[in-house]
Amino acid sequence: MLLKKYLKSVWQATIRHEQGILSNTELDQRKLEQTQYLHEFDRAIQKPLWNYPTETVYYREASSVNPLLSVRIPLLAYNSEDDPLSPQIGLPIEEEAKENPYVVLVVTSFGGHLGWFQPGGGRWCVQAVYNTLQQFWDCTGHGGPCKRFKVLNRSQISHAQGRFCYECRKYCTQIY
User: Fold this and answer.
1) CA dihedral defined by 103, 89, 79, 167, rounded to 10 degrees?
2) What is the DSSP string of the chain?
3) Model pTM above 0.85
4) What does the buried/exposed string (b/e) look like for 67-103 if buried means 16 or more CB atoms within 10 Å of the residue's CB?
5) pLDDT tens readout for residues 33-85
6) I need a surface site. Which of 16, 36, 94, 127 has the fewest CB within 10 A?
């Protein structure tokens, strides 16, 4: 339902700008009309509009990796491996996140694009962010892995039960 609503808004925005987009002589309207997937759309539209050699280069340039290295205030970032609008190639991975001491990157195995919906309604990421921040506060300076909180397995993550232990680095798929 949410995805349909999002795709409808993207389509409406595309229609509003159709003449401007199609007036670009670099665009192949036939390819645009045949697109079924996001990477095909990016290859047909973003690549020529912004003069990128490939859609992969576009993803890399549009990703948060470059600004991530410049962050100078504490940043807790969540991303999902199954995010259809943020391909893994654009995800700031371990090396970049570890390079900056101000950044904690939490990568979940599922959650979609700004989703993290839980059964019965609501979003489990809100509780996960709260729990992570609470854990930072609770564990500051205690000098060892936190043993007070239940460590979750993947099936429990969707319900946001228990708390994330930052020291143990257990709760989500990967934390950098």
Assistant:
1) -50
2) -HHHHHHHHHHHHHHHTHHHHHT-TT--HHHHHT--SHHHHIIIIIHHHTT-SSHHHHHHHHSSHHHHTT--S-EEEEEETT-TTS-GGGS--HHHHHH-TTEEEEEES--TTTT-B-TTSSBHHHHHHHHHHHHHHHHTT--S---SSPPPPHHHHTTT-S--BTTTTBSSSEE-
3) no
4) ebeeeeeeeebbbbeebeebbeebbbbeebbeebeeb
5) 788 887 788 888 788 888 889 888 887 787 777 787 888 888 888 777 777 77
6) 36
Residue whose tokens read 């300076």: 141
d(CA 9, CA 3): 10
| Residue among 160, 117, 174 at smallest CA distance from 149 | 160
Integer Cα distance of 72 and 171 in angstroms:
26
